[in-house]
Design a protein that fits this description.
Radius of gyration: 27 Å
Distance between the termini: 89 Å
CATH superfamily of the largest domain: Cyclophilin-like
Number of domains: 2
Shape: globular
Number of strands: 8
Largest sheet: 8 strands, antiparallel, barrel
CATH topology of the largest domain: Cyclophilin
Structural class: alpha+beta
Order of helices and strands: HHEEHEEHEEEHE
Strand content: 15-25%
């Protein structure tokens, strides 16, 4: 009888193990698969140096907007983006629609020169950048646009960059009375302020720390103000 009992226990234990394995095979892989598929979908949307120009070329055809509004606690700055600088316009409109700029800052202010925005120490902004992708834009300086007062332009990347490739997530507005002609040919002017230079001037005169960052944060949101 003991032999029979042992045999029955072995069979029952074996059945339980098989049921557990079967249960694991059904429940766990789909969850892992779903996460994997989600990850792959996100990766396919990442922009990089190889795919960004073809992407922006198509994006520019379908998204014709060229006027935006920067909202700050000091007022609003309206800007018209140049159609001639196609990739820079399309890139900026794309980032606005992705709400990248929401809650970024005017993080660099140089009195009588420029105010620079589009970045923040907030980890959420870094997360947005990673989601969108890591890429630089080639300069487009041969359209004849100069860095006059009110010009919006893109700074070059902080990495060693002899070709002055632009950092696509940031921008600066020239506030100097006589413009900044020494920037011509090195940075891409891709638009100009049409209303609100008084607001830009207020920001340009704020007190800053040693990093040229305003002591009191100047948060920004950016909206599109027309559908062309």
């Amino acid at each position: 009888m003991n032999k029979y009992l042992i045999l029955i226990l072995i069979i029952l234990t074996g059945c339980k193990e098989k049921k557990l394995k079967k249960s694991n095979e059904i429940l766990i892989p789909p969850k892992i698969l779903k996460q994997s598929q989600k990850s792959n979908l996100i990766k396919e949307k990442f922009l990089n140096d190889k795919n960004v120009i073809p992407f922006l070329n198509e994006y520019a055809k379908k998204n014709k907007e060229n006027k935006i509004k920067i909202l700050t606690k000091y007022g609003e700055i309206e800007i018209k983006l140049y159609e001639e600088t196609k990739y820079h316009r399309a890139n900026f409109i794309f980032l606005v629609k992705e709400k990248y700029f929401d809650n970024t800052l005017f993080h660099r202010v140089v009195k009588d020169f420029i105010i620079q925005g589009g970045n923040s120490d907030n980890p959420k902004i870094s997360t947005k950048r990673r989601r969108i992708g890591k890429y630089l834009l080639p300069p487009d300086t041969k359209k004849g646009f100069k860095h006059k007062r009110g010009t919006i332009s893109m700074p070059s990347s902080e990495i060693e960059n002899p070709h002055k490739l632009a950092s696509p997530y940031e921008f600066f507005i020239v506030v100097a009375k006589n413009g900044a002609p020494h920037l011509n040919g090195n940075y891409t002017a891709f638009g100009e302020v049409t209303k609100g230079m008084d607001v830009a001037d207020k920001i340009a005169n704020l007190k800053v720390d040693k990093r040229e960052m305003p002591i009191n944060n100047v948060f920004i949101n950016i909206e599109i103000i027309n559908n062309k």
